[in-house]
Design a protein that fits this description.
Layout lengths: L1 H13 L1 H24 L6 E4 L2 H12 L8 E5 L4 H14 L2 E5 L8 H11 L4 E7 L11 H9 L4 E6 L10 H7 L1 E7 L11 E5 L25 H7 L7 H4 L1 H9 L5 H24 L13 E6 L10 H9 L5 E3 L6 E6 L6 H14 L6
Parallel strand pairs: 2-3, 2-4, 4-5, 5-6
Antiparallel strand pairs: 1-7, 6-7, 8-10, 9-10
Helix pairs in contact: 1-2, 3-4, 5-6, 11-13
Length: 368
């Protein structure tokens, strides 16, 4: 995939005008067709973006003019901090308010998440922002059930699927039918595309209300058979589109790593994450905080509270002294904390064993 990006960058730099004016549209259309097949999406309603945070901000900026003081924006207390900040910014600018549904952790079942959101929704709720896979706690949330429950109450659903593509089988058309109006996801994580490759998928009945973050030539360009959505999102200014244009290569290279392709990769990574979680739970003497059904290729486990004078922090100590890179996440707030592991094809079981031993040693739970 990086080789493909280098080829595209060389083509761009050799003759930028020819690339942007004559080649880019056709290249991007090919990428959208390949990506749409992978995501179960409509290529005509896919937009390329640099990351999922930009996707969330795009939707919120478009929705903001329709919000009124007292309207409510619904979210869980597991939401990714950057996107929670975007939600708070939108509320402050419009007079709306953010309503936070508390999702228990440990959590007993997916239905608890849906129930928490349903209980927090009111007749003033206009939009629900929900992670597909929570970043801090590594939970796969039942977004289809959530969307179906909230759409019946007239609430638009925006799914932040930053971690989902390549981790979970996706059918964005099915999610749209259930009530998801907007879905954004990253392709630089589990798909392993270059950094800066992400997408936004918009429901057919909401296309007219969505605008890019950068209003540019497409706002008044002749359509020449294109939709206004395509005209606006396909050209927002000069940048480097090669990360997104490299996505088909990433999908192809990754799929070729296992005879069964992507379904086998997703299943293998999930099994590895579950096994890693079991090793950590055993070493730390804790129970799994979520059922297996809510785990994809990441898993989080609670750690003992951080001591007030811990220097260096546990994450830095693990990296500097044990050569282990793993996120230690203050959640829901310091001194509470989690360790979150991820699983990709290149990870080995012994790496998780080594992490468990290092944590046990540093936390005083076992001797060398």
């Amino acid at each position: 995939m990086l080789r493909r990006q280098d080829e595209l960058r060389a083509q761009l730099e050799r003759e930028p005008v020819a690339f942007f004016v004559r080649a880019a549209d056709a290249l991007a259309a090919e990428v959208r067709a390949v990506l749409a097949a992978f995501l179960g999406a409509d290529p005509d309603r896919l937009a390329a973006l640099p990351n999922a945070t930009a996707g969330v901000n795009t939707v919120l900026r478009s929705v903001a003019p329709r919000l009124r003081p007292g309207d409510e924006l619904l979210v869980t207390d597991h939401e990714y901090n950057a996107c929670r900040n975007a939600l708070e910014f939108t509320a402050e600018a419009t007079g709306a308010r953010v309503v936070v549904a508390a999702v228990p952790f440990p959590v007993q079942n997916p239905e608890a998440v849906t129930a928490a959101l349903q209980a927090a929704a009111t007749p003033r709720t206009r939009l629900c922002l929900i992670d597909h896979v929570t970043s801090q706690t590594g939970l796969v949330l039942p977004v289809e059930d959530i969307a179906r429950a909230l759409a019946g109450r007239g609430i638009d659903v925006l799914v932040d699927g930053a971690h989902a593509p390549g981790m979970l089988p996706l059918n964005l058309k099915a999610l749209e039918a259930a009530g998801v109006r907007y879905y954004t996801g990253n392709l630089h994580k589990w798909v392993c595309a270059p950094k800066g490759a992400a997408f936004l998928h918009v429901a057919a009945d909401h296309l007219d209300g969505i605008r890019p973050l950068s209003i540019s030539h497409g706002a008044n360009a002749p359509l020449a058979g294109r939709t206004r959505f395509r005209a606006e999102f396909d050209w927002t200014g000069t940048d480097d589109p090669t990360a997104f244009l490299s996505v088909p290569a990433a999908l192809e290279v990754m799929a070729a790593l296992r005879p069964g392709g992507w379904p086998t990769i997703m299943a293998e990574n999930r099994a590895k994450a579950l096994a890693a979680r079991a090793v950590l739970c055993s070493a730390l003497g804790v129970s799994a905080p979520a059922p297996d059904a809510m785990i994809g290729s990441m898993a989080a486990v609670a750690l003992p509270d951080a001591p007030p004078d811990e220097r260096p922090g546990l994450q830095d100590a693990l990296f500097d002294e044990d050569r282990i890179e793993v996120p230690i996440i203050p959640w829901p707030a310091h001194p509470k904390r989690l360790v979150r592991v991820s699983a990709q094809l290149y990870n080995r079981p012994d790496e998780y064993d080594r992490l468990a031993a290092a944590l046990g040693r540093r936390l005083g739970l076992q001797r060398d």
